[in-house]
Amino acid sequence: MTPIQNNANPPAPLVRPVPPDQISPKAVMLQVFKLRTVFKRYWKLLLALMIVGGIIGKIIDVSEDRQPIYTGGITFNLGGGSSTGGGMGDLGGLMSAFGIGSSAPEANIFVGDNFMIYAKSRPVVEKTLMKTVKIKGVDTLLVNYYIQHSGIRDKEWEENDSLRMFSFDRAKTPEEMTRQELIAMGQIYTKITTGEMGVTQPDRKSSFMRLQAGMQDEDMTKAFVENHLETIEEDYKFKQTKKSREVLKLLHRRTDSLYAALTGTENRLARQIDQNQQVVVAQAQIQETKLTRNSAFLSQQYFGAVQSEDNMRMSMIKEAPLFTEIEPVSLPLYKEVRTSIAMQAGILLGLIISIVIIFFRETYRSIMSEE
């Protein structure tokens, strides 16, 4: 009979190793305890570097002159234009930019986001800056007022003596500007369009647009927004009615030529009538009849040309879009003093530097202990 074996010690349970792509809770807790140990060892270094970084940032905050920013804008609506044949004055694409209608976007600078880019384009902004405006009762070139009150002399032009003393002597087109004037205008345009002005659509479901600017001078902000909207309207009308104006020029030249021909014919007819008062020759009467017929024909053509020219002028008025101000700029403007983050950045930089130092010291200690 086989004896029954009684094992006093049962077999140990099987422990499955943790897969290499997983982390056990035990390993996590061990790492946390190690970090606590490291923190206790280097907390003075962490605190010291963060305090030093914060003090340096605070000094920068105090020494830096933070100018207030005055923000203002105009909410407007664009409409009132009617389409004519041949694409003259077609506003359908532009209205689709404001969410009106379901037509597909067209290859037009006034369609969709193209209009917002166009409103911030350099030629349009330069035309605005080259306007003479009245600020505080004084007529001044808007670009010169911007140079004096935008802070560009103290920041962007601080190290350029020629630009710090620069100003435009009069309004000029880009073709008339010197090299230095072009450089100055380019930097002014970049400063305005990269952070001081913008054209947005408050609600995609509405046709309203908003032109907004934020600058260091309240009067400058108001003058720029109001005059820039006028410039956009003038330039927009000029481009939208280009074809109609070309046709109008042709009609005007035709009207002038018909008027000259009619006047000459009427003068010859008057002389012929004077000569025929004592003449009974048939040939003279035939000549008078021809001149009368030509005069009547030219008169009919002339009045038709005048009517066509008037119709074209009326058509241009209908084609021209109407910029309607929904919400104008009103003083006082919203004033915002932007706070500096130099102190917060200094504390964060001190923390990062201390972590890097601790990492390298602990790595060195680990290497030396293994040796």
Give a written overview of the molecule:
- This protein has 371 residues and is of the alpha+beta class.
- It folds into two domains: 69-241 and 321-336, 2-Layer Sandwich (Bacterial polysaccharide co-polymerase-like); 244-319.
- The protein is 57% helix and 11% strand.
- Strands 1, 4, 5, 6 and 7 form a five-stranded antiparallel β-sheet that branches. Strands 2-3 form a two-stranded antiparallel sheet.
- A hairpin with a 2-residue loop joins strand 2 and strand 3.
- Helix 9 (242-275) runs antiparallel to helix 10 (282-319).
Map the helices and strands.
Elements: H1 25-63, E1 69-79, H2 92-97, H3 113-119, H4 122-129, E2 132-135, E3 138-141, H5 142-149, H6 161-164, H7 179-195, E4 197-200, E5 208-215, H8 218-240, H9 242-275, H10 282-319, E6 322-327, E7 334-336, H11 342-370
Antiparallel strand pairs: 1-5, 1-6, 1-7, 2-3, 4-5
Helix pairs in contact: 1-11, 4-8, 9-10
